[in-house]
Amino acid sequence: MSHDLTQLLAAGIFVLALVHTFAAAGLERLAHRCPRHAGLLHLLGEVEVVFGFWAFVLIGLMALVDGGREAIAYAESREYTEPLFVFVVMVVAASRPVLVAVSAVLRGLARWLPCRQVVAEVWLLLAAVPLLGSLITEPAA
């Protein structure tokens, strides 16, 4: 009986994870409107975090339904190295000191480009920041 319940809970958690994935952009917008909870909302708005978060919920519910040993056995049968690396990188990258430092560096670089600073900042944000993000996260993949 508990195995069937676990399967139903897992299916429900998967559906919630899918809904969370499509709601990630809304959580990002909400993070800008609610500065008190901006850090948590920004973290939950990262698509890379969604399935890791819900996997954690799944293991917790499995421990409640099937017992701690079963949940631990299931968790230990999976490989989490890459998702954990991406999660840690996203948490560090979303921290205020990193965001402030990157903003300062981009503003400094924009001053050196031969165009208006606002235009240079926008182009750097559209081109350099995604490339740097890829350089950080892709070697793990």
Describe this structure in a few short sentences.
With 141 residues, the protein is an all-alpha fold. Helix content is 84%, strand content 0%. Helix 1 (2-33) runs antiparallel to helix 3 (47-66) and helix 6 (96-112) packs across helix 7 (117-137).
How much of the sequence lies in strands comes to under 5%
The structure class reads mainly alpha
In N-to-C order, the SSE pattern is HHHHHHH
Show unreliable segments: none
Give the beta-strand count.
Answer: 0
How does the major sheet shape up?
none
Q: What's the end-to-end separation, in Å?
A: 39 Å
- What is the count of helical runs? 7
- As for the number of domains, it is 2
Instruction: Please tell me the overall pLDDT.
Output: 85
**Over all CA atoms, what is the radius of gyration?**
20 Å
Shape type? elongated
Q: Helix share of residues? A: over 70%
Please, could you describe this protein's structure?
The chain is mainly alpha-helical and 141 residues long. The chain folds into two domains: 1-79; 95-141, no CATH class. Helix content is 84%, strand content 0%. The chain contains seven helices and no strands. It has helices at 2-33, 38-44, 47-66, 68-76, 81-93, 96-112, 117-137. The longest helix is centred in the N-terminal third of the chain and has 32 residues, at 2-33. The radius of gyration is 20 Å and the shape is elongated. The relative contact order is 0.08. The mean pLDDT is 85.
Q: Top keywords for this entry?
A:
141 residues; mainly alpha; 2 domains; elongated
Topology diagram in text:
Elements: H1 2-33, H2 38-44, H3 47-66, H4 68-76, H5 81-93, H6 96-112, H7 117-137
Helix pairs in contact: 1-2, 1-3, 3-4, 6-7
